[in-house]
Design brief:
By secondary structure, this protein is α+β, with helices and mostly antiparallel strands. Helix 1 (4-46) runs parallel beside helix 3 (75-92) and helix 2 (52-71) runs antiparallel to helix 3. The N and C termini lie far apart (81 Å). The relative contact order is 0.11. It has helices at residues 4-46, 52-71, 75-92, 101-122, 155-165, 232-240, 249-261, 327-333, 368-375, 415-418; strands at 124-128, 142-145, 168-173, 178-183, 195-202, 206-217, 220-227, 265-270, 273-284, 289-296, 300-304, 318-322, 337-344, 349-353, 356-359, 362-363, 394-396, 401-405, 421-422, 426-435, 442-443. It folds into three domains: 14-92; 126-130 and 299-443, Umud Fragment, subunit A; 142-294, no CATH class. A hairpin with a 6-residue loop joins strand 20 and strand 21. It is elongated.
Length: 445
């Protein structure tokens, strides 16, 4: 005679069996609905390509599955009806069914690309800061210089730096014995140090243009290639002409002029052209390190493209715009994206007094960078009165235009030189710095 415990066990098994059966039937019904959706798609897209027999068979099998689904037949009967429909779909589905894995993957990536392009065009766009016109608010490409080989990161650490900071190492060794000479000038130079533009590769794959710099030791050239926007003058200034001061292009220019006046240069042939080469006073032997630095990537951020469709840009905010309708920029850069800080809206009167910007006859407000520049604190160098805002001059921002300046005023090509940003070319405002993982990571300033 069965015990109470065994009866409960049997009852439990029956209940579990019934639950499992119910789950199986629900899954089969969901499966049937999916097949009916596919059958409808095949019929709508391919009925003009099917012959009468194929059309009749497809409609008949589809109706059979739909009827059994409505009658809530058992999972076994519904499965047989689905298999019968699937057989017809294989013969009539064409490119819709069956699909190869390749076709499905292509469709997936195509849809993903469309979604990404839509988001990029209308909502949020990734943007890379190329130059240091907004330093120290945002970093463009910057160098980290190592005074001697013992300071250089090991191979594992360099790999980690590449992942975390986008660091790319450059190690230059002397090809002979003698004094390091730095060629200056040239039509293709970015700043003071001589260079030439050469073809190269980005990420070792994509064709691009690079700047090739040459240093001389005993007339033997040592060359290094860097991106077009990389400030190699910064490397030369800190590694060869500095006594520990923070880099400043003005300071480098002053030092070069002093050495030229003192006759501390030699004339050498570089890249087929006779050039003045500044003497550094530093002598090396063949094989010794001339320069060692890592090229750190610029801040990469997301730009909010939607806000300015609903609210007006405010003074003090980061300001991303296109250069396509600013004639002086088109000549040098084409139609690109620039990021500066908004300092003037339509109707504003602007001027530079001392190291600060005066807006509508009062010190400008709206951003911490304004105050820091005015007081030359926190690494901010102060605003420089040049171009349209030369000493004693002011500008009035016209209608449907904006005036933008860089936080790194001494090294920023901004509205002082090329004027106003047309309202139609405003893109948005910086939203979030997502790479590299430095102190700038996080909400944009």
């Amino acid at each position: 005679m069965p015990t109470e415990a065994s009866l409960l066990t049997r009852t439990g098994k029956k209940l579990l069996g019934l639950i499992g059966l119910a789950d199986a039937e629900e899954k089969m019904r969901a499966n049937a609905a999916n097949w009916l959706e596919l059958a409808e798609k095949v019929w709508n897209f391919r009925r003009d390509q099917l012959n009468a027999t194929e059309s009749a068979e497809l409609l008949e099998r589809t109706a059979d599955v739909r009827q059994k689904l409505a009658e809530r037949v058992s999972a076994e009967k519904l499965k047989l009806a689905i298999e019968s429909l699937e057989d017809v779909l294989r013969r009539t589905g064409g490119a819709i069914y069956p699909k190869s894995a390749l076709v499905e993957n292509v469709e997936f990536f195509l849809v993903a690309a469309i979604v990404i392009l839509g988001i990029r065009t209308y909502f949020v766009q990734p943007f890379k800061i190329p130059t240091n016109s907004m330093w120290p608010s945002y970093n463009g490409m910057t160098p980290e210089i190592f005074a001697n080989p013992a300071d250089e990161p090991s191979a594992p650490i360099e790999a980690l730096r590449a992942v975390a900071f986008g660091a790319w190492p450059h190690r230059l060794d002397a090809a002979g014995d003698g004094e390091i000479l730095v060629p200056i000038g040239g039509a293709e130079s970015r700043g003071i140090v001589h260079c030439r533009i050469v073809p190269g590769r980005s990420w070792l794959i994509f064709p691009t243009k690079l700047r090739e710099y040459t240093l001389l030791v005993d007339d033997q050239p040592t060359r290094v290639r860097v991106p077009l926007d990389f400030d190699f003058d910064w490397v030369i200034s800190e590694a060869l002409f500095s006594s520990g001061e923070r880099y400043s292009q003005r300071r480098l220019i002053t030092e070069i002029e002093r050495r030229l006046k003192a006759g501390e240069f030699e004339v050498r042939v570089v890249d087929g052209e006779r050039m003045r080469c500044i003497r550094t006073g530093r002598r090396v032997r063949s094989g010794e390190r001339i320069l060692s630095f890592d090229e750190l990537t610029g801040d990469q951020l997301f730009v909010d493209r939607i806000s300015y469709h609903f609210v007006k840009p405010t003074v003090g905010s980061g300001f991303v715009f296109r250069t396509g309708n600013i004639a002086p920029l088109v000549q040098d850069y084409g139609d690109q994206y620039f990021v500066k800080r908004l300092v003037g809206v339509p109707g504003d009167t602007l001027e530079v007094q001392g190291t600060g910007v005066i807006r509508n006859h009062a010190p400008i407000t709206g951003a911490a960078a304004f105050v820091a520049n005015a007081h030359r604190s926190g690494g901010y160098p102060g605003y420089v009165a040049m171009g349209l805002l030369a000493p004693g001059q002011s500008v009035r921002v016209p209608l449907r235009s904006f005036f933008a300046m860089g936080d790194n005023s001494p090294n920023s090509q901004d509205g002082r030189y090329w004027g106003f940003v047309p309202a139609k070319d405003v893109v948005g405002r910086p939203l979030f710095v997502y790479f590299p993982f430095t102190k700038h990571w996080g909400p944009a300033r």
